[in-house]
Amino acid sequence: MTHQVYRADNKYLTRIDAESVHLVVTSPPYVTTEFKRGQDFDYDGFLATFAIVCEQLYRVLVPGGRFALNVADIVTKYRHDDEDSIARVPFGPDCLHVALSAGFRYLDRYIWDKGFTRNFGGPLLGSYPYPLSLFNNNYFEYIFVLRKPGKRKVKQEVREESKVSIEEWRLWVQQWWRIESESERVSFHRAIFPVEVPYRLIRMYSYVGDHVLDPYLGTGATMIAAHLCGRASTGFEISTDCQSMIHKRKSLELRPLIDPELTYGYTDEDEWN
Questions:
Q1: How far is it, in rounded angstroms, from Cα 60 to Cα 24?
Q2: Which pLDDT belongs to residue 188?
Q3: Which segments in the chain show pLDDT lower than 50?
Q4: What is the pLDDT of residue 19?
Q5: Fewest Cβ atoms closer than 10 Å to its Cβ: which of 15, 139, 153, 247?
Q6: CA-CA distance, 67 to 74, in Å (whole number)?
């Protein structure tokens, strides 16, 4: 299987051929998780940009293709200009609404339980020990599964090769996925995406030999999962540390004596300008 990484803004999705992708798996970056007075919090601007991305994802997906979107809500002081109180921002539902507005249909939803139930030694947010703003430990994220209208035709031998075992089915169709967060064990990225999440989604919503796209590639978890599942992949990542992060992630996730070697093409945005 071939894998291509573009160290480039995902506005270059326009270069991907229409109806050439079978599955999109991605987790957009949060607008902010920092608490700094005077910081830029362009939430509406992000949603406007995400709308353009969703329009391109709709274009490049084949009819009947799937779009798996992992998002979580935000807790911040900086969403509203008229006060500086902490509030929860419905980033997940807002992103879902944007994707549906691009033409996608709502297929399913999972809750990713990240397994981190500790209290960090005490309260971090809110009015503790007093009432009104005792915030819960929001350590879960949404996984929305969407589809582009239409139906796919796949050869029976490919369907057979792509089958999910009964043990996998029993685990994966549970609405709550308990998959431990990995962000706490790495220093080169603030919010890495566990490979197990895209691995399940790729196995459930694509066939062997399909093409998987991640427009926010990050450390390359979607590409690694696609590789392990026998799917090709393409990813866009704007960070200048993209290639270094992917190499580090490969060393964490792939076992040299068991997993097949992962090689990928790499194109820098400067080569396009």
A1: 10
A2: 46
A3: 188
A4: 98
A5: 153
A6: 22
How far apart, in whole angstroms, are the C-alpha atoms of residue 231 and residue 244? Answer: 23
Bridge partner residues of 108 (DSSP): 145
Beta bridge partners of 6: 236, 267
DSSP H stretches of helix in 206-254? 221-229, 242-253
| CB-facing half-sphere around the CA of 32: CA atoms within 13 A | 16
AA identity, residue 107: L
Token pair 């109180």: residue: 85
Q: How far is the C-alpha of 85 from the C-alpha of 15, rounded, in Å?
A: 43
One DSSP character per residue, 67-121 reads: EEEEE--EEES-S-TT----EEE-HHHHHHHHHHHTT-EEEEEEEEE------TT
Residues 227 and 3 sit within 8 Å (Cβ to Cβ): yes
Which tokens hold the place of 78?
Answer: 């900086």
> Where do the domains of the chain lie, and which CATH numbers do they carry?
3-271 (3.40.50.150)
Structure confidence at residue 123 (pLDDT)? 61
Distance CA 231, CA 100 (A): 26
Residue 133 structure tokens: 């703003």
> Of 209, 214, 210, 206, nearest to 249 (Cα)?
214
Tokens of 214: 């991640």
pLDDT digits (tens, 9 = 90+) for 243-256: 988 888 888 888 87
Annotate 20-86 with DSSP letters as a single string: -EEEEEE-PPPS-----TT----HHHHHHHHHHHHHHHHHHEEEEEEEEEEE--EEES-S-TT----
pLDDT of residue 36: 62
Residues 6+ apart with CB under 8 A from 14: 56
